[in-house]
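FIELD: query
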Amino acid sequence: MFRYALRRLIIMVPIGIIVTFIVYAMVFALPGDPIQALSGDKPLAPSVIAAKRAYYHLDDPLFSQYLHFMGNLLQGNLGQTFDGQDIGEQLALRWPVTLQLGLTALAIQTVFGLLFGIYAGWRRDGLVDRSLLGATLAVLAVPGLVVMFFAQSLFSVQLGWFPVSGSADGWPTSYLLPATVLGVLGFAGLARITRTSLVEVAGADFVRTGRAKGLSPQRILWRHVLRNALLPVITFIGLDLAGTLGGAIITEGIYNLNGIGQFMFRSIGMKEGGVVVTLSTVLLIGYMVVNLIVDLLYGLLDPRVRHV
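FIELD: result
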């Protein structure tokens, strides 16, 4: 198991280098001058512009800028934004908002997705199964942005059940509506894959053998079916975490939550390559750690995977 985990860790290194360089190159290729964008309509003195360009190495080639940025990053120096804000302090202020939103949405999605998926798969072709299929199709067919704006208009503006925007009321009041919308959008995919996986495993030979031996339905479900049916479900949850965080970043803009998403949008607009790559790197590390956990869980549930 240790060698299996070590192989996964070694694979992460080149992936991290390639992804961060691609992100940096994409920001580097954006049109416009970030220093001029910072000053707006007010002209800056040539000496000030030259000093800032030299400080941020903006006149260096792409590869040189990237190496300089990564060197500072590996030393724990996240640097400053073009307007002088400490990136580390900004991350410390904004991460709790994004994490609270993303983890609340993931908890809603996982709990309800697994419950409905398991029940619908185990009671195949029943009322819950048919209702679930119809509901998930409807959710998957509607664009997420439409659902977010509709929920905000109905539950916040018209009914007044939740704050319209901002995080002034704290968790969970300010986060419940956007997290529920995010959770519902992810719930459909998770419920369907859980239901499909459980139906496939429930029809396997070893399950029929268990029934022929007189094992109780509950024992067959919890001891034999779920262990095998959850393999693709765990993979889906791990991969979906990145989508949940991405959705959280978009949701922060709609519900005016001062998290990583707003910081990312502003940084892209200002062509802050260092900030965008730093945020992307942090997200990438989190994503790879989650996938490492998924791989390890996969190896525990199915020992054959360790030798792949």
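FIELD: remark
The chain is about 75% helix and 0% strand.
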